[in-house]
Amino acid sequence: MPKESILVTCIASIGKNTMLENTGSCNQQINALIPKNDKYYPYFLLTESTLWSNHMLHSASAGTMQIVNKTEFSDIDTYAPEFEEQKRIGRIFNNIDNLITLHQHIRMEDKRMIKNKLFSVYYESWIKVYKEGAIRKVTMDKYKLTLSWIKKLAPKMTMKDLNRITYQELLNGYAEYHERQSTMDFHHQLKGAILDAVDDGLIDRDPTRKAIIKGKSPRDKKIKYLNQFELHKLISDLELENELNYDWLILLIAKTGMRFSEALAVTPKDFDLMHQMLIINKTWNYKEGGGFSPTKNESSNRKIQIDWQTAMQFAELIKELPEDKPIFAFNKVYNSTINDILARHCRKMEIPVISVHGLRHTHASILLFAGVSIASVAHRLGHSSMTTTQKTYLHIIQELENADIDLIMRSLSSLNR
């Protein structure tokens, strides 16, 4: 075999080529390409041998393993430009190969640098690249809050320090101050960034795998809402004049279950009075001085049926108003403003003091107690799934189930002989 030969595997993994610069022997699994004419071997290795291998791959005998026999291998015709041209082309390919190697080396150096970077710095960059402009501001604020907790709990943690133990310690530190659900949310926000780092080869293994979610015992949370009798008393005290005021806003939320920001965004155009419908497709950014914003999620875009009396009242109230302007954004308004008005009415009528969000819970609870299905209530509230509704109103659902058990037992008892 000549001093320079190109070795090609001819069994199983066909097409893996290398250049041999020393004499040696070949066997039936490895054969040497020795061109009959003068060839510049680096050119031949990078061009024709690869094309030849691809061709042989398709003509190989099928079996347990693909094999190219000696007859098929010998006396292969090859075609190439003049020797000097081969050298020029070979040098170009060689330079490209060197450039790729250099970039791979630089990338490895970059990875080493990133691995020494603080995890909080990486997370901050990740938020900027992947989340900024892609999520609502309220969600972005949650990611920034997560960042602040990383800086507080793990100020010196680098990317290379991240493993299952250090990650669990980070979660445990957060859980000391928060309930389990909040710790779960914290975990999910971190996990997105960490899995991207694993995919990019910045972390060897997923440190979030089998993480244990802990947290403080949840406080007893009883949703404050009014029953139907108490809601009647509240509505009877509202000053529902011939012009729109915040009492009308209270009435509309109580009758639709809208979120406060959704109610502030309502315009005359959103009323489909002929079909007694109210279209919800935006919110009002009251926390930042006003302006329309998207709804909380896709499920929040919905149509809510309203009763004929409410439809008639608002038909009269909005008939002279600009179609595209919010009817309740008279000036800067915050939920605390409406909460104060609502509290005054509640105290006056000697009923439990609830917040404006409590009106939404009141609306849902009255529907559930009236026998409306969870699916219909979930749609009306704009929940992304019925699970959210079930979790939020679990205590009401349990009360209804207890009542159902009594009804079931009475029904079964009547079947006795």
Largest sheet: 3 strands, antiparallel
- The radius of gyration computed from the alpha-carbon positions, rounded to a whole number of angstroms, is 36 Å
Figure out the total of helices. Answer: 17
Order of strands in the sheet with the most strands?
Answer: 2-1-3
| Uncertain residue ranges | 12-25
SSE string: EEEHHHHHHHHHHHEEEEEHHHHHH
Q: Level of helix content?
A: 40-55%
DSSP, total strands: 8
Mean pLDDT: 81
Class of secondary structure makeup: mainly alpha
- Judging from the principal axes of the Cα atoms, what is the shape? elongated
SS strand fraction: 5-15%
N-to-C span:
103 Å
Please, what is the oligomeric state?
A: single chain
Structure, described:
The protein has about 425 residues and is mainly alpha-helical. About 50% of the residues lie in helices and about 5% in strands. The chain has 17 helices and 8 strands. It has helices spanning about 40-45, 50-60, 70-75, 85-115, 120-130, 135-155, 165-175, 180-200, 230-235, 245-255, 260-265, 310-320, 335-350, 355-370, 375-380, 385-390, 395-415; strands at about 5-10, 15-20, 30-35, 270, 275-280, 285, 290-295, 300-305. β6 and β7 (about 290-295) form a beta hairpin. α5 runs antiparallel to α6 (about 135-155). The termini are far apart.
